[in-house]
Amino acid sequence: ILLGMFLLSGCIPIERSEDKNKIEVTGKAEFQSVPDQAVVMFEIQTNATSVMEAQKSNTERSRALIEAMTAKGIDKKKIETVQYNIMKNMQWDYEKNKNIDLGYKVVHIMKVISKDIQSVGELVDAGVIEGRGERLGRGRRGRPAGGPGVGGVGFAAVELCAHAHERVLAQ
Hints:
alpha+beta
């Protein structure tokens, strides 16, 4: 009897509802592509004794950057604010062993996307030079040097992307 039960138990199919109508695929693929767009990040930093002065100066430099980018053929829709900060600008005086109040600092980070990756250098130059700034000098610990009235458009980073090919792979 035990032998019969053992043989019959192997003939009864057991279905799991979770495995029904399910296909599982595992694999690995590599894809190489040539970049077709550039993302350029600009940091616009202004310092002033009052918040209003710092914001006004930053707004002027931001507008100049946008004008410089549109003059180079960038659509305004491809220029956007990534970050905007207003902060008290303090600097440590090591000789006096105390913080010195320098007023206020406004930092505006803008992203510019270009399909013309060959002209990225020109975009950077236009943003930094024609955007009424200079490459920001860095003081101690990587912080911008200078006090009130100092500021400009500083170039932050360039990233080349294969944007169109990412969409093809996702489809």
